[in-house]
Write a structure and sequence with these properties.
Keywords: Disulfide bond, Electron transport, Redox-active center, Transport. The chain is of the alpha/beta class. The protein contains five helices and five strands.
């Protein structure tokens, strides 16, 4: 699968209706963005089970603002609709590959349950 361009209207539907979505926030004038683009595009051809989306921060300023993008490139990952990764900066090919592997292995349901248990205070889901 190649990368898909995301606009504000498509963003929420894309991240909630797909198992794993990577979103690259970029701009044409950004040197690191241009360096990361071929790495991202190559990974998209190797992982057809992952949605690789791109958001042009110049064309989609409202979406970039809503996502609180302050530096580009910024890569975000959503698994089962939950934001599970967010980092500014371009990744090298092996770094992106390691991230994708870790994201595929991540049990987001267990992570959410553990976080909820920690917030409840005693680990069994009941209020402390």
């Amino acid at each position: 699968m190649s990368t898909v361009d995301l606009a504000g209207a498509d963003f929420e539907r894309t991240v909630t209706e797909n198992e794993l979505v990577l979103v690259d926030f970029w701009a044409s004038w950004c040197g690191p963005c241009r360096q990361f683009a071929p790495v991202y595009d190559q990974a998209s051809t190797q992982h057809e089970d992952v949605v690789f989306a791109k958001v042009d921060t110049e064309a989609e300023q409202q979406l970039a603002g809503a996502a609180q993008i302050t530096s580009i490139p910024t890569l975000m990952a959503f698994k089962k609709g939950h934001l599970v990764y967010r980092e500014a900066g371009a990744l090298p090919p092996q770094g992106l590959e390691q991230l994708i592997t870790a994201l595929k292995e991540l049990d987001v349901d267990a992570a959410i349950a553990a976080q909820k248990a920690a917030e409840d205070g005693d680990g069994n889901g009941a209020p402390a």
